[in-house]
Fold this protein.
Amino acid sequence: MADHQEASVTLPSDPASVSAARRYVADVLEEWGLPAGADTADTVRLIVSELATNAVQHTFGQSPTFTVDVRLERDERLRIGVTDSHPRWPQRLPAAVQQDNGRGMVIIRWLTAECGGRLSVTPTPEGGKTVWIALPWTVPVQM
């Protein structure tokens, strides 16, 4: 029996890839037993949308692709990471900032915490970074 399940997709850093990333993760999670209409599925889709949007918008054309990794670990944690090759890490914005964009990480942090999860950022060997979320998996693990 495997220690975990994983899936990955690499997409072009293009706005159309945001919906492709969201759809990919939703399909993987449904295959792993999370019903498409579950509250957790909706939350994960929103988090993936924000992570993918950040990978597209905030890399300033310096990351031609981004990768979405989905892992269901034996300890019943769902981990989703979005990797790009841009060296700049996400910035924390003051809560009082009023602007049209730049709130993606605030949304991601809030949704992740609301689900009892955590967020982390790790460097890649190539000089980019992966933004990870880890959430409790509330569906029985079928490995």
The first strand starts at residue 4 and ends at 12. The two ends are 6 Å apart (CA to CA). The chain has a mean pLDDT of 86. The chain has three helices and five strands.
